[in-house]
Amino acid sequence: MKQFEFNTQLIDIEPHLQNFAYSLTNNEDDAKDLVQDTLLKAMTNMDKFQENTNIKAWTFTIMKNTFINNYRRRVKANTIIDTTDDMYLINTSSIIPADHAETQQNTKEIVNAIKTLEPEQRKPFEMHVAGFKYKEIADHMDISIGTVKSRIFFTRKKLMEQLKEFAN
Asked: Low-confidence residues of the chain, pLDDT below 50?
């Protein structure tokens, strides 16, 4: 496809892009910026467009991905990590000291409740608590992801029943 044909097709679908952009942003100025970004990306990546395919769907995908990436970037930029002393309740671990007798007793009770579980329930639960993803647990234990999820769900339910005094 020649550059002129490609640009003509982009111009023809611009009103559709504008409507889609507004549905994503709910703001006219942001929608115009999103359309402009999308058209620029489409033109710079013209070589990646396959002839005889749907250019409208292709540009809508570019727009959706651009919108998502911009959103993630904004969220990340607005995340505030406060390390000042004013945030001492959040930033210090000394609020509930690890050597506090009640904390030690509570931890002991929770660990004992986990130890009473059957190994096929305990193992996926412990791995999940340790930060493993469902897929990693499933691969490690050679079971399906659905089985991992259900075992973790029922284990949590069972522990919550056993440890009712910790609900508050």
From this structure: 88-95
Q: What is the pLDDT of residues 34-48, one digit of tens each?
A: 999 999 999 999 988
Tokens of 129: 């608590």
- What is the pLDDT, as a whole number, of residue 93? 45
The two structure tokens encoding residue 91: 């930033």
**Which residues are CB-contacts of 17 (< 8 A; sequence separation ≥ 6)?**
35, 38, 39, 59, 60, 63
Report all structural domains of the chain as residue ranges with CATH numbers, in order of start.
3-78 (1.10.1740.10), 98-166 (1.10.10.10)
3-state helix, strand, coil in the chain (%, to 5): 75, 0, 25
Q: How far apart are CA 121 and CA 125, in angstroms?
A: 6
Whether 77 and 70 have beta carbons less than 8 Å apart is answered as no
